[in-house]
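User: Quick sanity check before I run a bigger batch. Here is a single chain. Can you write out its predicted 3D structure?
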Amino acid sequence: MNNQPIIFDGHNDLLTRLWLSSADDPVHDFIYGTLPGHLDLKRCRRARWMGGLFSIFLPPYAYVKNNHPDKLANPQNTDFTPQEIVDICCAQLQLAKALQARSDGQIQICTSVAQIKACQQNQQLAIMLHVEGAEFLAIQPELLDTFYAAGLRSIGPLWNRKSLFGDGLNASFPHSPDTGSGLTEAGKDLILACRDKHMLIDVSHMNERAFWDTLEIADQSIVATHSNAHALCAQARNLTDQQLAGIKQSGGLVGVNFDVAFIRADGQRNTQTSLDVIVDHLAYLIDHLGEDHVGFGSDFDGCLLPDELSDISQISKLIERMQQRHFSDALIEKITSKNWFRVLGEIWQ
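Assistant: Done. Predicted structure follows.
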């Protein structure tokens, strides 16, 4: 479509997919060729997908053991060793650096909105580094400074697993977000350390008590990078109206996740799902948050997409569906990029 807006995306798992890849050189394939999955540079450019928050993520051990046992030192183990946890996250950081170093200036790691907008002007892909689940920092806390120096500016301290920082969030469908205790003292200390570094703090994988703990102490706009409306899909990871009100009061943002299990009313992993369901979540969040507090948080390369939106090359279909639902051009631009630029500009000082 000729009037396709630029897209800045709140969440993807490309770096984890590169780490898991069995290709001889997945970094080269992403930049210069075709990479299996939802994203590669050529498709991103055609879709005007100019970057976003790229997650550094420790996949579930059972998934790695069953699908990629070659990535493990000893596949007979029942969980990652502490050193494996650190090594896996450090390897994904190195992959991000390699994307930049080997791209002939086509990809840049960014730490400010000014740098992101410069990438937009220069038709470069903008990578903002994000940590999804900070378990490696429980093992080597000093790595926060190391990753920050390398460009890390966003963190989701918890994932689904219990850790030093809190219980995480894991429950069968349907369920409320109230699945356990809140942040531990170590979790609160991590939130404060990241706040003092002017980092984005992501609540997408926090249970309800940890969510409210974070809002109480963070003293900045709070973001759910890839979450949806609990009222429309009762996954524990989706946000209640009360949580939405808390995010709105903080000045934050919710990035809508495209994963079918988190948009469908029945919570099923069924790819025969209309894109109208994503638009339903966008409309609901706009009603509750206001049009300045909603964006995309696709979860590309980490989710199961509707058939109509099989990868980034099909994103224009979602934009068209938003237009058909009478989203104005100005509102679409806010959702696809401008709202993210606002909140990041407020935090990344």
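The chain has 14 helices and nine strands.

User: Great, the batch can go ahead then.
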